[in-house]
Amino acid sequence: MPLYLLIARDSSLFAHSHAMSIASLPVSVALVPVLVVVYAVYSYFANPLRRVPAAHPLSHFTSLWIHWVRWRHVENATLKDAHARLGPIVCLGPDEISVNCVTGGIRDVYAGGFEKGNGKYNWYEFFQNYDGVPNMFSLAGNKMHSVRKRMLSNVYSKSVVTSSPALLAQMSTILCERFLPHLDTVASSEAPVLNIYATLSAATMDVVTGYIFGLKASSDLLSNSQQLSWFLDLYNSRRSFNFWGQEFPGLTSALRKYLGHRLTPNFVDVANDQIEKWTLGMCDGAETVCRQPDVAVEDTPSVYQQLASALSKEAKKVGDEKTDPKYAIASELLDHLAAGFDTSGITLTYIIHELSLHKDVQSNLRQELLTLSPPLVPSKAATIPNPKAVDGLPYLHAVIWETLRLHSAIPGPQPRFTPPKGCKLGSDGQSYYIPGGVRVSASAGLLHQNPVVYEQPEEWLPERWLDVLDEEKRKDMESRWFWAFGRSVRSRHKTRAILVEMLTWPDSGGRMCVGSHLAVYRKLRVLLPCPGARHRKMKHMGPPSTAPVGIHVA
């Protein structure tokens, strides 16, 4: 066949084929939405969560809605509305629910050993430090967490915290040589206005790092206002940029690695690096102190010493003595100091905020605090009141507990994953089967707003904790629904043992904070009496709705 005829035939065949492809294109395009609908319907009926009330019409089909809520930082308010409308168990996405009850809720999830990760995703890995070095809080598995917790439980135990000569000396120095003189200087100035958040953050940081690293190697933010501003600027600059790293860590990492695109600003990484270097410097200082033959009691790095020794023993046990534990120690202790200062500082700030708005409560508390002996005064030879005496003050207890209820330092969800075999969650006739691998969380801010347990839940009323005669009512308030630390409190008289989820992030069950006594004796219940007892008036600077920062001290 001549060449020109072959070319003509092939051209004709190509044109015919192309015409058929164009004709079939609309059919293919039309099938796409049909397939999407079919898949959505199939997924809906195949998912047991379809029986759980949906917080949004899209919740049973996609997680896009709840991610949109989190990205806009309105999750707490959204969950409050959803539970008010739909009950204690609410579906947030095709593989996520929120619980807001005790039986069939937080008791099962957090005391029942639900894991932090599902093998593919761990929300808490975001809190690793030094480019992925884990710490106790970020560990997903309960077994690994238990090993690390045993390393530190002794140094944070009640008996050690209440009898430690090092901690007593550290607290006396911080309170009587730094904190009280600072308050008196402000009160006697021409413009006695105190940035209470910054001051209390400095005090709690000095207490935490003092116990961890010893005074010689620790922070002194109360005496160094420039370093305090530097640290708070770094720390708080990161607060609004957690979403992508927590919810989509794989996507965040891939975009940055392969396309050079950042989902969070560069200054967030810079801030993290600076804080990590600062912590590493304190670790190095503590290590230097440990190698000295003679160490002043207040310079004893109690927590650093304990952790370093425990990690060394663990390394010998598994035959890994060549690995330098420097960054494992630093990552763990950075988690302690960050959470310890942050949550305690926030809680103390809200206490002062509420006291400045409620003069009658302020007066009653001051009268109770004046009964303490010895009194808190600025002096190098001063001693602090006996912890048992401070812990036995009922009005102080009520003020602290009510603030923890209304202003939980971490009011939002704390995720876990249901076990592979699944479980049943819910109560009071609203029980649902939840399959394995479903993300489930509860929120202290919602549990504390139950009007059946806490009358007028949006009001700050310390008196609600005094003279509760009905035993069942007391159990509801103090044991079942009170979840300020990621777990319920079993008794009013165990405040010493529970109040400090403040040293590390809130957790539950076997993951209850190892530092559960430090803040009780040495932070909330000792720092709070200082301004309360020594100064007659604390006046809020600004309307009641503003953030609790400026306080007039007299």
TrEMBL record:
The chain crosses the membrane at residues 20-42. Gene3D superfamilies: Cytochrome P450. Keywords: Iron, Membrane, Metal-binding, Monooxygenase, Oxidoreductase, Transmembrane, Transmembrane helix. GO terms for molecular function: heme binding; iron ion binding; monooxygenase activity; oxidoreductase activity, acting on paired donors, with incorporation or reduction of molecular oxygen. Its cofactor is heme. PANTHER family: CYTOCHROME P450, CYTOCHROME P450 12A4, MITOCHONDRIAL-RELATED. Belongs to the cytochrome P450 family. This is Cytochrome P450 monooxygenase-like protein.
